[in-house]
Structure formats: C-alpha cells, structure tokens
C-alpha cells in the first residue's frame, strides 16, 4: 500500500530533488544443507517521487526492514546473501551495491540516557560541523530541528532508557529523525514503527 503526502513548500523543479525507482528486488539467504531462504521474492516494484512519502506496510516478519535496507543499499555484506534487482535514481540505473544519498533511521538508536533532547542534537551538530559553524548558527540549527520535529516540550527532558525514565517512544523516534536531518538529506528511510509517530507532525 502506497500513501503519498505532498509538502506544500516543496518545489519539484528543484535541481537537488531525487526520484527513486525500483523493480525486481530479489534477495536470498544461503543456508547450509538447506534450500535457500527467500527474503525478497522479486515482486517489489515502485517509484518514489520528490516531495512524497512512500509507506511500505505489512505484518511483522513480512520483510519491510529488509526491503528498506535493500532499497537504500545498506544490506550488510555477506557471502551467504544474494541480492539482485534494478534501482534508479532520477531515471539512471545505479549499481546494486551503491548506497543512495539518503539518511536511514533504524528501529532502535543508541543515545546517552542522561543527556537531554537539546543536548543530544547539539552534540550531533557539533560532531558534524565542529568549528565550521559558529555557536550562534549551531544553536539556531538545533532549535529549528527541535521545532520541526515537535520536540519543544521535551527539549530539556533527558532521553532515558529502560532503567531511567525519560522521553516517550514517539519522542525518541522523532529525536532519531532529527539527528539524521542534520545533514539535510535528500531522502530519508524510516525503519520500524515511524508512520504513526510521524503522520500528525507531517500533516
């Protein structure tokens, strides 16, 4: 099922926009003394236009995470894994082992539990840009990300973990997205239960 959400401020004529196409994505896992296990059956086919959100939906174990990794070009190398298929970036076919110019938000991210949301984003910004951005510009970027991801109320709350109470699961997922948006990626892959957390903030 494909759900498309347009962005009012998006300009499809932007030279920096990306369109992704894919078809025939087939992945197998070689098992010793057993028949190869089919992870993706080759039926995966689609097109993602600039300024749109594509949702890959299915039950647990259906291969959604595997499909995201395959499309992003982030399948860990293994002699036991075979992956074939065609992927296109702005109409041009790309190599099967090439990564897309995309950010990838994993199902789980590791944060320092005693750092606040604001401190976590500020730390990632400083790691990325260092002295190439002055303190004022770094602070502005942090505040913009906090506002864009609706993290204002949680900005000064510690992240927490299973032992230390902190922000909610939805807020932690949005924090993961905020950290990936520091690079201003053209494409963002959201793995896991992101859609229910993100839709209210997109709309």
Distance between the termini: 19 Å
Order of helices and strands: EEHEEEHHHEH
Count of individual domains: 2
Integer-rounded radius of gyration: 19 Å
Please state the average pLDDT score: 85
- Could you give the count of β-strands? 6
Major sheet: order of its strands? 2-1-3-4
For the sheet with most strands, the description reads: 4 strands, antiparallel
The number of helical segments is 5
Structural class: alpha+beta
Query: Rough shape?
Result: globular
Low-confidence stretches: 1-13
Question: Could you explain how this protein is built, in words?
Answer:
The chain has 203 residues and is an alpha+beta fold. It has two domains: 20-100, no CATH class; 117-202, no CATH class. It is 28% helix and 21% strand. The protein is built from five helices and six strands, in the order E-E-H-E-E-E-H-H-H-E-H. The strands form two sheets. The chain has a four-stranded antiparallel β-sheet with strand order 2-1-3-4, with helices on one face. Strands 5-6 form a two-stranded parallel ribbon. Strand 3 and strand 4 (92-94) form a beta hairpin. Helix 2 (117-129) packs across helix 3. The protein starts with 19 loop residues before the first strand and ends with a helix. Residues 1-13 have low confidence and may be disordered.
């Amino acid at each position: 099922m494909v759900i498309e959400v347009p962005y009012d401020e998006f300009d499809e004529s932007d030279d920096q926009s990306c369109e992704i196409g894919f078809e025939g994505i087939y992945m197998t896992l070689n098992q010793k003394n057993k028949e190869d296990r089919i992870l993706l059956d080759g039926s995966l086919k689609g097109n993602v236009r600039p300024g749109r959100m594509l949702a890959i939906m299915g039950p647990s174990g259906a291969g959604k995470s595997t499909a995201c990794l395959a499309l992003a070009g982030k399948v860990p190398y293994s002699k036991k894994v075979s992956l074939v298929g065609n992927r296109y970036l702005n109409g041009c076919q790309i190599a099967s082992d090439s990564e897309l110019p995309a950010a990838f938000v994993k199902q789980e991210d590791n944060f320092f539990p005693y750092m606040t949301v604001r401190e976590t984003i500020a730390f990632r910004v400083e790691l990325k840009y260092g002295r190439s951005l002055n303190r004022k510009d770094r602070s502005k970027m942090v505040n913009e990300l906090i506002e864009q991801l609706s993290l204002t109320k949680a900005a000064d709350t510690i992240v927490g973990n299973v032992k230390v109470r902190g922000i909610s699961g939805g807020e932690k997922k949005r924090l993961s997205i905020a950290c990936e948006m520091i690079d201003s990626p053209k494409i963002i892959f959201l793995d896991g239960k992101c859609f229910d957390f993100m839709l209210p903030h997109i709309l």
